[in-house]
Amino acid sequence: MTTDTAGTYDVIVIGAGPVGENVADRTTAAGLSTVIVESELVGGECSYWACEPSKALLRPVLLRADALHVPGFGPALKGPLDTEAVLAHRDRMSADWKDDGQVEWIKSAGIDLLRGHGRLVGQREVSVETPDSDTVRLRARHAVAVCTGSRAALPDLPGIENLRAWTSREATSAQRPPGRLVIVGAGVVGVEMATAWQGLGSRVTLLARGEGLLPRMEPFAGELVAEHLREAGADIRFNTSVVAAERLPDGELRITLADGGELTADELLFATGRAPRSQDIGLDTVGLIPGDWLTTDDTLTVTAVPGDWLYAVGDVNRRALFTHQGKYQARIAGAVIGARARGETLGSGRWAPHTAAADIEAVPGVVFTDPEIASVGLTAADAERDGRAVEVVDYDMGQLAGAHQYRSDYQGRARLVIDRNRNTVVGATFAGPGVAELLQSATVAIVGEVPVERLWHAVPAFPTISEVWLRLLETRRDQ
């Protein structure tokens, strides 16, 4: 038996991942009644199948790689990692795939939670099918925010549904290392999972369609990661693709490559990109195409729907597919929704409180591999394609005194991309152990549009790897 009920709120948020939680937090703080609709675990992809579990797998692997190169540690670290302990830590970081703590936070913030699958059914209207097959019809006075995120995109491979192949979800939640793991994809998920599972005892083969790893970053970043993965025992193959695969009766996978070669594996991970989770959320009822990315303006308002009531925040709008960027968008969207509800005029300008400018000019990201890769803003190639007059400054981070304190055979490289006309940094990439902690200073330099001459007065402490900022400026002065 099913029953229909109804409810009215100021704001309806579809999706209770970090993005949806932050939208709801901001609109609730603005005094607007808000409900979140969620069909899976509250906390979303990041908490259970992406950021948290992947970094829990990677941290022990990367810490051991660093420690092996610190005098005095090597002899104590010759044995393998305690895989069972690492996986137990991963489980704790994923809250054992239970969302009680996240639900408690939502309640404490004064936000209502409705479990079920939410679909748009018209302007400011959402229908929710609950786990009990009841239907709850919701109406929003001011806004509906779609925060459904993204999912793994699988290639168009014959018989793929019978392979029981891994996506990022299975790769981060597996209960034991596969003996042989083939990874298809050279992006962040591919190289991070290659690093993690190779370090936990799997024999990893990584297949890259192009000529390098991390193709959207500066080329030297992928080159360093490839070198270290090979040193760890991984087999990396470039200009390679999979044309067929089958799961044999004994569970083994047989994989056929475009050049006619074959591989056998215990598990096959497709890390071949992301697709929007927008297929079954009623987009057609408001004139949009189901399964499409949702295009927004800088206020995160969906541009193709009139009335300024529908918002798309986080991965689903394809502006910047990072959890931290989605949460940034959520803060902007929450402020926009609150201002419009109060009848206020939105702030204008490039860095106004109602404008998500950082999605275009200052997106930071870290790849947790050996070595770490940290980047923000434009690559040199991106800046040149954008028609900018740029200056590129490189520095060998292995020359830093602080780097040698960090690791005796430190290998790394730093690059600044400087806009000659504005004389400001528009891009930065750091590759090397520990460089993630350099990223915020680079982000501040870009967002703050700090003139390069002013950076001379930001004195780095000695001996730390942050001294690379001074060395980059010296290199620019002397070249």
Automatic annotation (TrEMBL):
Q: What keywords appear on the UniProt entry? A: FAD, Flavoprotein, NAD, Nucleotide-binding
Query: Where do the FAD/NAD(P)-binding domain residues begin and end?
Result: 9-320
**Looking at the keywords, is Secreted present?**
no
Q: Which InterPro entries match?
A: Class-I_Pyr_Nuc-Dis_Oxidored, FAD/NAD-bd_sf, FAD/NAD-binding_dom, FAD/NAD-linked_Rdtase_dimer_sf, Pyr_nuc-diS_OxRdtase, Pyr_nucl-diS_OxRdtase_dimer
Q: Which GO terms describe its biological process?
A: 2-oxoglutarate metabolic process
> Which residues make up the binding site for FAD?
55, 118, 148-150, 315
- Give me the disulphide-bonded residues: 46-51
Tell me one GO molecular function of this protein: dihydrolipoyl dehydrogenase (NADH) activity
Cofactor binding note from Swiss-Prot or TrEMBL = Binds 1 FAD per subunit.
Domain Pyridine nucleotide-disulphide oxidoreductase dimerisation residue range list: 363-469
- Write out the residues that bind NAD(+): 185-192, 273
Needed cofactors: FAD
Please give the family membership noted in the entry. Belongs to the class-I pyridine nucleotide-disulfide oxidoreductase family.
Q: What is this protein called?
A: Oxidoreductase
List the top taxonomic levels of the source. Answer: Bacteria, Bacillati, Actinomycetota, Actinomycetes, Kitasatosporales
